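SEQUENCE WITH STRUCTURE:
===
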Amino acid sequence: QVQLVESGGGSVQAGESLRLSCTSSGRNFNVYHMAWFRQAPGQERELVAAIGRTTDYADFVKGRFTVSRENAERKLYLQMNSLKPEDTAVYYCAAHPYFRSSPRSEPFAWWGKGTQVTVSS
């Protein structure tokens, strides 16, 4: 069982930035299909960004968020710039044990417990 631990969440003002991190316990991290999801209160969980052989982003974060990975450190990152109040949610890291044809492919085998991001106006 691979464990994923998110960090970097917090409370910021609109327009500010945050950088989320996800640390994986998996030894084969370099071939994991990774993603960030988020879930706001009363709403369904939604994909934010994914990275496998390529990257993909939800339309609502394109140009503001950047997903990246550091395989040597087994870390996934989400740089979030120009944050908006509607970005407020719990952000989850997800992983699957191998790359797939599309970064948006689901399901994911492993999930973190999430980190809260709150953006005030």
